């Protein structure tokens, strides 16, 4: 192989590498995933066989795309790894739950709602309350709560409780 051909190949490979790097650099904010953490967890019995779980959480959108909430779901994972989905409570009903069960304390954040927008490069504090068909003792002996947020365009983000 001649020296000029080797130089030409080297220059060509460098150009391709620069083009691929530029494409990755331009697309760095297009991946829509929310980061966050669960700040506070509260549980209370509703009756003998059902209870409510309430989480306050902080969510950040580090992408360049707005996240529009389609659904917000609270999952209960027991120590054996089985998951149970809670029935989400509306914002009006959550206010009633806080009034009716004083041991829960104050309602610090507004409830995350369908069509809530989490704009690019912003952070929001929200809450979600869910009813579970399980006694409070089962909620208290959980492995963790998992918050699942689904965007209207399909991406799903999960925020897990650290216990």
Descriptive terms for the model:
163 residues; alpha+beta; Immunoglobulin-like; 2 domains; 5-stranded antiparallel beta sheet; 4-stranded antiparallel beta sheet; 3 helices
What is the secondary structure topology, with strand pairs?
Elements: H1 3-26, E1 34-45, E2 51-61, E3 67-77, E4 83-85, E5 87-88, H2 91-100, E6 117-118, E7 122-132, H3 136-140, E8 144-151, E9 156-160
Antiparallel strand pairs: 1-2, 2-7, 3-4, 3-6, 3-8, 5-7, 8-9
Molecular structure report:
The chain has two domains: 1-30; 34-160, Immunoglobulin-like (Sandwich). Strands 3, 4, 6, 8 and 9 form a five-stranded antiparallel beta sheet that branches. The mean pLDDT is 89. The protein contains three helices and nine strands. With 163 residues, it is α+β, with helices and mostly antiparallel strands. Strand 8 and strand 9 (156-160) form a beta hairpin.
Question: What's the quick description here?
Answer:
It is built from three helices and nine strands.
What's the total helix number?
Answer: 3
Largest sheet: 5 strands, antiparallel
Strand content: 35-45%
Give the radius of gyration: 23 Å
* H-E string: HEEEEEHEEHEE
Specify the CATH class of the largest domain.
Mainly Beta
Q: Could you please say which CATH topology of the largest domain applies here?
A: Immunoglobulin-like
The total count of strands amounts to: 9
Q: Mind telling me which CATH architecture of the largest domain this is? A: Sandwich
């Amino acid at each position: 192989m001649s020296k000029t051909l080797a130089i030409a190949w080297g220059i060509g490979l460098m150009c391709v590498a620069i083009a691929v790097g530029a494409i990755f650099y331009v697309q760095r904010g297009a991946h829509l995933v929310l980061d966050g953490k669960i700040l506070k967890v509260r549980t209370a019995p509703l009756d003998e066989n059902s209870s409510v779980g309430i989480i306050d959480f902080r969510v950040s959108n580090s992408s360049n795309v707005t996240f529009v909430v389609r659904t917000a779901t609270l999952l209960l994972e027991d120590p054996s790894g089985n998951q149970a989905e809670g029935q989400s409570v509306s914002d009006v009903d959550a206010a009633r739950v806080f009034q009716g069960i004083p041991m829960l304390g104050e309602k610090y954040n507004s409830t995350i709602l369908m069509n809530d927008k989490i704009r690019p490069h912003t952070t929001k504090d929200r809450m979600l309350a869910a009813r579970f068909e399980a006694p409070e003792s089962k909620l208290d002996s959980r492995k963790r709560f998992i918050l699942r947020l689904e965007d209207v365009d399909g991406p799903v983000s999960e925020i897990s409780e650290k216990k």
